[in-house]
Target: SRPBCC family protein
Amino acid sequence: MPEISVDVHIGRSVTEVYDFLSDARNLELWFSGVDTVAESPGPAGPGAAHVYRFPGRHRDHLLQCVAYVPGEHLVFRGDRMWNPLGTQTPVYSFTLSPRRRGTLLRLTVQSRLAGALVLLSPMVAMAWRRDLPRDVRRLGERLGAPHCHVIDAPRRVRLPVPPFPPAPARPATPPAYTPTVPPRPQVRPELRAEQRPASVPAAPERAPRPAA
Model:
């Protein structure tokens, strides 16, 4: 699921930038992820649905506003699109914050892929990294701020991964008792008959010497 984000500084107020972005019909004027957007009978806001056409597609799909915080955050989600390799669901997110001389805009594009399209996620991410800088510069031109500055080059967003919880400490246990075994006495092997020493004959008894 590739997710690419880019930051850009636009020399317009937050209100002007947000009002322009919240009207989905303006997306086709600058954003490469939208080809055409039809007129919508309802006002802009959460739940508003627009009929749009994704680039390279010949069928109409719905583009729905799923998050709407005036002056701060805006998210559009497209219909799930099917092809022989799988499905793709695009999500476009805009986050704004005021700056001294304009607005800092973070544009995030997320493509939720399924099926064999997951194998093509590096190519999808590469295409968005190529197109997003041109898109935000085109947005600045539409807002009358052609000298918008791309602060951060497109990068892959990495979601924070919670660390693994530490393993519980094991209670200290005394070492297992090992009984001491006394050494076995060494038994001298008996000699065989041929190895036994011959018996020494006893010395003959001497007669007592006569007294002088």
Summary: DSSP finds three helices and nine strands in the chain. The chain has a mean pLDDT of 79. The radius of gyration is 44 Å.
